[in-house]
Structure formats: C-alpha cells, structure tokens
Design brief:
Two copies of one chain form a homodimer. Chain A is an alpha+beta fold and 319 residues long. Helices cover 31% and strands 23% of the residues of chain A. In chain A, a hairpin with a 4-residue loop joins strand 1 and strand 2.
Chain lengths: 319, 319
C-alpha cells in the first residue's frame, strides 16, 4: 500500500478535529495558536541508513533530515528528542561516545537542544527523532499557484552518488569518494534560509524522497502540474565531472532522494527579492521550472524540450 | 549498562543548556515559558508488548502508557504522534482497521488527537509515541520532602497477573482471565486526577517499571529513603482472591510494572484535602508509606514490621 493511501484510508479521519495536523498532509504539525511546530520521523538501519559502521555520521544524517522538515517551512528547530532502539553492540560505550559527540556538534551548528527521548533494547536498530520549533506562521504544502516559478536550493544528486559509493555500485578516486559520502551523511541543509523563506515562497517541502516524488507531494492536493527543465537542475562541479567521466545521464542522479534541499514555488514577481536574498544569505537558489494548470501531465524536459520518461521518480514509502 | 548511567554518562551534558529537559531526569520535558509538556516513548514487540495478535489492545496499552506520563504530572494530554515500524503482516489492512478504530476510541475517551507520525518498513515491530500537552506548571520528580506521605492511585498488580496469563505461566478461570488481561492491555489510568494532583502532590511519577523501581526513580536525585507497608498496598478483590487461592505472596505481584497508576508524595497536612478530592473525583487514593531521611536504607515491611527482601524490584532498562 502506498503511504498516501495508508494515511488517507486509516489515519486522516483521526486528525479531523485537529486543524493543526494539516490532514496529516504536510511535513509538520502546526498549532497556530500555540505557535508550535512538530515533526516526527523514524529512521531504520538498512532502509534510511545502510548500516551503523559510522555511528557519528549516521546520527548527523538523521538529525539533519529531521530538522530539515522544519527549516524548509521557515521554522527554526529548537528542541529535539531522540528515541533509539538497538542492541548492546549498536549502543556500545564506544558508539555511545561517538553518538554523544556527534549530537554535541550538531547542537552547536544548528542551535538545537536534546530535550528527551528513550532507549529500548531491540535486535533491529532504529531511531525516532521528534523536532520541535516555534513560529507565527509556516510555509505550507498545497499552496502553489499557477505560473509560480519552481526553485531548489543548493545542489541535487551528490547524496545519491554517496549512497552508490557506500553500496559499492560505483568506483571513484578517494578525493571524490570522500566528497560524495560526506554529502550523503552530512547534507548542507539550508538553515540560513529559515528566516527568509516566508518572504517569498507560496509552498515548500524538503527533498528527502527525490525531486519529483517530493514535487508531487508538495502539490498533491492541488489540480496542478509542473514543467521542469533538466538542464537547469543544479548539480555540483564534482557531480558534473563524474557524469562526464562515466557517461552517466543526469536525470537518474538528480531524481533520487536524500538531498535535503528545499524545493519551493514563488510568484514570478518575487524573482528580484529572491535573487537579492540568495546573494545576501549566500544560498544557492535555482529556478528549475514552473507550475502549470492541469492541461498537461507533469513533465520534465531535456534541452530539446522533449519529455523525459522516468523509470523511477524517487523513493515511495510502501507497505 | 543501567539506563540511568547511559543518560548520565552520554546524554545529560547535551541537555545542560535546556532547563526544560529537567536534566533528562524526569518523565517529561517542560518548557515553562511556552507551557509545553512533551513525552517520548518507544514500545517494541517482545519487550513492551508480547506480540501483535491483538493490535486493537496493544494500541490502547501504548497510548495509555504514553499519556500516563503527562497525566501523572497533572498535565492534560492533547496531541499525540505515532510512528510505527513494522512489516506488511503487522500493518495489513485488517490490522490497520483495528489500529485506527482503537485510536478513535482512545481519542474519544481521553480527548486526544492524532497529530502526525511516520510509518516505516521493518521486520521488527515497534511504535514511538510522542504525547504533547500544555500546562502552567507540573508536578516534578525529585521534590519529595522528609516525612511526606506516599500514595498510590487505584490498584497494583492486576496488570502483572494479566501478563503471566498471556505468557501461560498461570491458569485461571475465564472470568478472572479476562479481567486481568483487560487490566494488562487497558490500565485504568487516572485522567480524572489530572486537574487535581497539583493541589497536593510534592512529587509524582507513574508506575510503569514497578512500584519500587519507580519510587527509586521519583527520588533518585534526593538523599531520601522510604518506608512502605506491604499490607497497605491496594490490590483488587480479584487479585486478593487469586493470591489466596494459589497461595502466592503479595509482594511479587505489586512490585512489577505496567500498572500505570500514579505514585506521589504529599505533606501530612494535605491528608484532608486528599481524602476530599478522592471522594469527589471517585478516585481510589491509598497511603502506603512515607518518605524518611537517609538514615536507613529504602525498605518495605510486612505486617510484623519486618523488612522484606526483594529479588526483583521491578523492571530496569539495561543495555
């Protein structure tokens, strides 16, 4: 069963009396009166992270993934709760030291604070992170407007290349290998944008499942489609190098997940302010397409304006 | 490693800048300024619940266990988030229907609302529940005073008997079997007390790990001990019947966990108001002992004032 159906068929009705739950149809919970924003995510070994050989890096990845849900909505994360299930090996003294040190570094970097959690014994390793922030307003999903520009922050695809390297599905020199693996574990989430995004975005989401999968999610309740220009999707110079070297096609690398960049739509009349803010905050913001009415299907086109067919639109959570 | 040491050695320092985290030394997180109270707990199959043959009951148990953490502090739970890890069998359509129906019943009973969560694939079944409430103040741990009376709500031990029956370690007639198993899955948590407890309690906790284990937790930062009178520990008439019938000793049944009753201390001068509130709210409140200074060790005594030695003080979380 698709994650959407699961929520729709079994859980949405339970949230009907809670407008703050946003029909379980957004990345976060937002109680406007209490100004409270909450995000809850579970990460399991073998699924959200390959293994626990590098606890210090896995911890950074899951913390960033969790607070990214708030940041992409224009909300500063403040508190986080971590609940870990694992065995004695996963939570050995040496691993606990590494976990603790990593959390400390992330706390300093993002000004967040460990506020509670739980530890339980399990032969399967998983973590649930609850992130909490406070805000007067947030940028929602499902608020894109026809003709909105579609933007993305930073670069896409580096993280997926890191994953392929970790899975030994690709070989590269040590310098590049280190670069991509670091991007996989420590994505450059856009905390500098957190106070700015509400000034221009109509709708936003962070890219965890893949550019197109998350674009679909962002507008899933709206009768809208989009047009994305493959050539405009921003990638790092390192990824450009690898694509040339290995004769790989760009589309497969930018449409996979784990980038944790912010995808948002904004009215055309915001172009100037977006340029200005990007330059002031030193954040890379790239226009990659636009929202259109539902006359045509969703589409991504190549340099010759020819529609690209995709085998895999990204990661979909299934049961 | 004992749970206390794990928190103390690796995580407490990370919460130092968050007074609301209460040094990770209480059941909840409390941001006094924002009036926000949060509790996060993980429940795994084979550990916190035996199996998932009765999803509708397991769900009730874990929801009550989670909101019990807030209720024992005098905080009305309002929102809950549920993050489930499981496989296709655990989250079959039939089970999802049962889960959804159960959540609906609990929502009506306790006036709580599903506000978000996550579902991930895993061969090991577990749930993490985040419960959120709002309050101007809470009843803390570690605030017991010398000579405080020690009270407990409801009855103890029924839930443990239910567990023994589910594990086939005991045989009883169907009527009793049903009673105890229902108590195991659907403990009578004391939501009626939630607005009252702050009027009299100096310190409180809910009994999840066992009477003495939780009593230790409630005063663990204080140089205090306690004296508990076994004969005063309240048990149901059904449990009384079984203890007589099977010639079992009371102590083993009241010192195990999963009761989700409230354990609290209060000054002697609150005895009258406690009696009055108990009668008005129709909540059973029983005085079972008192707090003493650290001259003697912690103790529980029998009818002849002889100290009882305990093999098992309850459930301790170890790694």
């Amino acid at each position: 069963m698709h994650e959407f159906d699961l929520i729709k068929n079994y859980f949405q009705k339970l949230s009907r009396k809670t407008p703050s739950a946003l029909n379980l149809n957004d990345d976060v919970f937002f109680d406007k009166k209490k100004k409270l924003v909450v995000s809850v995510d579970t990460y399991t070994e073998g699924n959200h992270f390959i293994n626990f050989k590098k606890p210090e890096l896995v911890i950074k990845k899951i913390i960033r993934s969790s607070i990214s849900d708030l940041i992409c909505k224009g909300v500063k994360p403040k508190y986080y709760f971590i609940s870990g299930s694992g065995n004695k090996k996963s939570f050995s003294k040496s691993n606990l030291s590494k976990i603790s040190k990593s959390l400390h570094q992330e706390q300093n970097k993002y000004k967040i604070y460990l506020s509670g959690g739980d530890t339980v014994f399990s032969d399967k390793l998983s973590f649930t992170i609850t992130s909490i922030g406070f805000a007067n307003n947030i940028v929602y999903r499902n608020k894109a407007k026809i003709n909105d520009d579609i933007y993305v922050t930073g670069n896409l695809g580096d993280s997926y290349l890191g994953l392929l390297l970790l899975e030994n599905k690709l070989k590269l020199n040590n310098h590049l290998k280190k670069y991509f693996i670091n991007q996989y574990f420590m994505p450059n989430i856009q905390s500098k944008l957190v106070d700015q995004i509400k000034k221009f975005a109509n709708s936003s989401i962070d890219i965890s499942d893949g550019l197109l999968a998350d674009l679909d999610k962002m507008i899933n309740n709206q009768k809208l489609s989009y047009k994305i220009f493959l050539k405009d999707i921003p990638i790092s110079s390192n990824l450009k190098k690898v694509l040339n070297l290995k004769k790989l096609s760009k589309i497969n690398y930018v449409s996979n997940g784990d980038d944790y960049q912010v995808l948002f739509t904004a009215s055309k009349n915001k172009r100037r302010i977006i340029k200005k803010i990007a330059s002031n905050c030193r954040v890379k913001l790239t226009k990659i397409g636009y929202i259109q009415s539902n006359v045509k299907k969703l589409s991504i086109v190549d340099e010759k304006n020819v529609q690209i067919s995709l085998k895999n639109k990204g990661y979909f959570h299934m049961f």
